[in-house]
Amino acid sequence: MARSTPAERFAAKTTPGPIPTGPNTPDTPCLLWPETSLDRDGYGRFWVDGRVVPAHRWAFEQKRGPIPAGLELDHLCAVRRCVADDHLDAVDHRTNVLRSTGPSAVNARRTKCKHGHDLTDPANVHVSYPPSHPNGMRKCRACARTRARRTREPQLAHVATITTHHTPERTAA
Ligand SMILES: [Zn+2]
Ligand SMILES: [Zn+2]
């Protein structure tokens, strides 16, 4: 029996999926990796050349060549376990964040915060990458300053109330 090639093993694991719906998604069907061999983030895992590689990256490199250094693969269909190479685009991290469809990306596409501050000005935007938002999370610095002021003021007022309340009690004792 002839040993199957990585490409044959790869093909045997995939099943055609639906055509993605949503704005700016490809009009060809997804190619789905089995749900039983996904990594923690929901990307396919493929065992090849003695190691485990992300299935979509392997598919892309087979069909379209090496992913240029520093670039990440963006799923145009937003389906993480999709391994259709034409649903993948090699982009820089910022573009990947801006294009992604999660709540943080919807946020990333906004040009103003809910209080009308400019979110296109890098000086007003703080980007962090907490575990809950691996694609990045933007925060409006102007709003953060307002919030910090508001939290400080009521606390001071509270302390003042306690002090005035306590003083007469102490004198009475
Ligand atoms: Zn897809
Ligand atoms: Zn703001």
Mean pLDDT: 82
Query: Got a strand count?
Result: 8
Largest sheet: 2 strands, antiparallel
Bound molecules: zinc ion
Q: How would you characterize the overall build of this protein?
A:
The chain folds into 2 domains: 104 residues, Homing Intron 3 (I-Ppo) Encoded Endonuclease, Chain A (Alpha-Beta Complex); 51 residues. It starts with 5 loop residues before the first helix and ends with a helix. With 173 residues, the chain is α+β, with helices and mostly antiparallel strands. The chain is elongated, with a radius of gyration of 25 Å. The strands form 4 sheets. A two-stranded antiparallel ribbon has the order 1-2. Strands 3-4 form a two-stranded antiparallel sheet. A two-stranded antiparallel ribbon has the order 5-6. A hairpin with an 8-residue loop joins strand 7 and strand 8. The model has no long low-confidence stretch (mean pLDDT 82). The chain is built from 5 helices and 8 strands. Helix content is 37%, strand content 16%.
